[in-house]
Protein: GTP cyclohydrolase II
Amino acid sequence: MTLSGIYEPSPSTSDSDSLFSPSASSLSSSISSTPRPLEDEPALSAAARQQLLERLLAQMDPAAVKQVEDAAAAVRQQQFDHPPTVRCLERARVSTEHGEAFLYRYVSSADPGKEHLAWVYRGAPLAHSLATRLAGESEDQHKVRGYYPGTLLDSATSQQHSPHARDGIDTTDGGAALVRIHSECFTGDIMGSTRCDCGEQLKEAKRIISQRGGVILYLRQEGRGIGLGEKMKAYNLQDLGVDTVVANQLLGHASDARTFGLATAILEDLGLSEIRLLTNNPDKISSVEGSKRVVRVTERVAMIPLAWQNKPEGIYSKELDRYLHTKRTRMGHLLD
Structure:
């Protein structure tokens, strides 16, 4: 038995059934055919863009949109009542620009083909699910996966906790651990996109939590759960003039396809029963607590855009302003 063979997630085979998602056969055909040259064609005029948008909007079926939104709500309710099962597969120390952190890799019964991450600043709790050995795993292999107390490196930053240490995390003031539930955003987190505030929120969460102690959950929910490819299509639709809600619906998706029962399960696995949640989304608070309230949110910590605080490092962008306006007026985010 090798460590590399312990777990490899299977590739996801799911795809959207919308008009905008070609089948594998049609995609193969389009790749093998001769592409239509566009280099010498003029850019779409304002009138042509408007006509394209009107044609797309005319195809929207309100009944179908409601059906998709209702289905997403049913999944959220299911996870609200019954969070998925999670398992921590590895745990390791990582030195970062914000200090030492411990990284945890998780898989979930809700989406077995994906892996989700958690990293802890000012602590190194042993995940409950990591305590169980895998089939055929030796004690030494178990340790290499991360099941050990303290640290394996003598020169590593000491994980000694102050008298305020709580649930294995030194929260400096003795309060509940700070937590940021962050949905993956390649464009914001990696490219530094100014179309959203995701990258800024992740940077601020790292800065705040590394100083005060807590956890960042990095959930693979790109594009509010629709995936990167669909999100890129949504960007093109937004460039035609619709907001993020309508763009998702035009593609056959819910306005927000995410669920947060996964976050509940990971926090419980890390031994956290009370948290202070960094969020502007009230749905995250109720969703994480769930019907059984195995994790309680004792405080909401607002994530106010840095530009709104007149800080020079903030994102000053008209696109971001429109994005935040949609969050506030269409999705109920608390940004006042």
Observations:
- DSSP finds twelve helices and nine strands in the chain.
- The beta strands are 86-96, 99-108, 116-121, 165-166, 169-170, 177-183, 214-219, 274-278, 296-301.
- Confidence is low (pLDDT under 50) at residues 1-17, 158-166.
